[in-house]
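It is worth pausing here to work through a concrete case rather than discussing structure prediction in the abstract. The textbook approach is simple: state the sequence, then state the predicted structure, then interpret. We follow exactly that order.
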Amino acid sequence: MKGLFQLLPFLIFGYVVFSIIRNAAKVARKISESPAGSRTPAGFDPAESERTRRIQEEIRRKIAERRGQAAPVEPMSRAEPSPTEWTTEPESPPPEPPPLDSTAAVLERQQELADQMQALETARLLEQRKAAVVADTARNEAERVAAVVAMRGALLADLRTRPTARRAILLREILDRPVALR
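Step two, the predicted structure:
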């Protein structure tokens, strides 16, 4: 027994060394199995990352414009364009609205806006009516369920006494289908 306790530190040390060597071999095997130069994650999509970068750049530009600052200029991180930049067409700026110089054009635009506001108001009132109908339906359903529960409770309370139970059995025999048809 004493000899086993003297060997225990050597056994533990041997196990630790063996584990380290085994893990190093696993890491080396994974590195050798992966394609050379592949440092991207498994689910990496270059087109998606390019879209994300463009959207972030656009958001930063808009924020800077709103604050009255110049748009921040980010240094290019790549020397050559990505494959998505080769295949996509450059974005054209949105068409500018025609200048509103005349009074007639201003009045026409105001009339269009008034019509849009009227349509939105009508849609809002329609949605309010629909919501009221749904609320009434839900309230009526809740009241109906509460009435059924109350009636069932009253009926069960009536059947607890002996005479009312006999009367219920008699009424069932009279009102139910005849025994020959059951």
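Step three, interpretation. Residues 144-181 form one domain. The mean pLDDT is 81.
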